[in-house]
Amino acid sequence: MKLFKLFSGFIFAFLTVSAVTVAQVPLYTFPADDGSKNYYVTSENGVNIFVEEKGDPKNPTIIFSSGFLTSRISWDPQWFDPEICEKFHLVRYDYRGMGNSDKPNMNLYSTDLNDDIFTRYMSNIDNSNSYSLDLHATDLFALISKLSSEYDFKEKKIVLVGWSIGVPISLSFMKNYPDIMIHGLMSISGFVNNTRKAADNDKIALFFQDLIDPQDDWFKVVSGMDGIFSLNSYKPFSDELKLLFLGSAAVAPLEYRLSVITPFSLAEFYSTISIPTLHIIGENDIIVDMEHSLYFASLGQNVETIFYKEVGHCPLWENIKDLNKDIINFVSKI
Ligand SMILES: *[C@@H]1O[C@H](CO)[C@@H](O)[C@H](O)[C@H]1NC(C)=O
C-alpha cells in the first residue's frame, strides 16, 4: 500500500513536470566521418588557422564565417545537409582565438598594471590588436590563397556566408582584398556597425560587460557567456546545445573577447557593393535588432531580404529547414 502511494506520487510528479515542458532548439548530432578534410593555413603574425573542406571543388565554393565567440562547429546543421554537400564545395574555419586555431595574446597582464585592462587594450589597437576585423580578414585571405593554389579560380564561383560577426569579417575581407572576386554574400543575422548606443539596463550590454570584466573574473565571464547564449534564440536552446556554444566560447582569450568593443562601421563600403547579397533576418533577434537589420539591408545595391518568424539570432539552428533551402536557392542562382 505504502509502495503504491509512493509510486502514484512519483507518477503524479512526473506528469506535472512533463506538462510544463517548453519547445526548445535541440542539439542534433551528426556523423563523425563525413569525408571532410582539414588542415592549417598560416596567416599574419604566424597564426595558424584551422580549416575544414568538403564536397566537389568543381562546384561553387561556400565559405562559412561564424559568429562572435563561436567555432566552425556552429555550422554543423548546414555542413551535414546532404543537398548542400552534394551541390557545393564547402569551407569553414575557426577564427584566431577560437576552436582549433592559434590563440595569440597581447600580454595584457604583464604590462603596466596601474592602467586598467581597457586602456591597455585600446592603446594597443593600431599595431598589435590580435583580433581586429582586419586581422580576421587576413586569415580569410590566407585560406582563400590556399584554395586558389589548388583550384582554378578563373572558373570558380565563391560565395561568402557569414553569421553575425562573420558578416563584418567577410565584408572586411572584400574591402581589403578587392582583387579577389567574390560572387555573392549572404548575411545571416549580420550587422554592419557596432556603434549603436545600448539602452539603459539593456540586458545584452550587461552580459557583454561581464564578458570583458576588467578583473577577468572567470565566474563573471562565464555568466556573461551564459547570458548571451540564453538570448541567442527565440525558443530556448536545449541544455545540450547551449553547452556546445558555452564550451566553444570558453577557450576565447581575453583579447578576443575585448575586440568586441572596438568601434567599426562598414556601412560606406557595403553601399559600394553590387554583387548579389541575401539578408536573413530573424524577426525575434534581440542581439541585432530589427532597426539595425533594416538599416543594413537598406544600404545595399543588390539586396534580397528574407524574414524568419519566431526566430532569434541563430537561424543556423533555429530554422535549419528554411535556412538550408535559402542557402541552396541563393548560391544556385549565382
Ligand atoms: C550604425 O547603425 C545604426 C542603425 O542601427 C545607424 O543608425 C547608424 O547611423 C550606423 N552608424 C554608422 C557609423 O554606420
Task: List the main descriptive attributes of the protein structure presented here.
AB_hydrolase_fold, hydrolase activity, 334 residues, 15 helices, single chain, alpha/beta, 14% strand, binds 2-acetamido-2-deoxy-beta-D-glucopyranose
Chemical compounds bound to the protein:
2-acetamido-2-deoxy-beta-D-glucopyranose
Pattern of helices and strands: HEEEHHEHHHEHEHHHHHEHEHH
| Radius of gyration, in angstroms, nearest whole number | 21 Å
The helix count comes to: 15
CATH topology: Rossmann fold
Please tell me about this protein's structure.
This protein has 334 residues and is an alpha/beta fold. The chain has a single domain (2-333), classed as Alpha/Beta hydrolase fold, catalytic domain (Rossmann fold, 3-Layer(aba) Sandwich). Helices cover 41% and strands 14% of the residues. It contains 15 helices and eight strands. Strands 1-2-4-3-5-6-7-8 form an eight-stranded mixed beta sheet, sandwiched between helices. Helix 7 links the parallel strand 5 and strand 6 (184-188). Helix 8 packs antiparallel against helix 9. The longest helix is centred in the first third of the chain and has 18 residues, at 2-19. The termini are far apart. It binds 2-acetamido-2-deoxy-beta-D-glucopyranose. 2-acetamido-2-deoxy-beta-D-glucopyranose is lined by residues 193, 195-196, 265, 267, 291-292, 295.
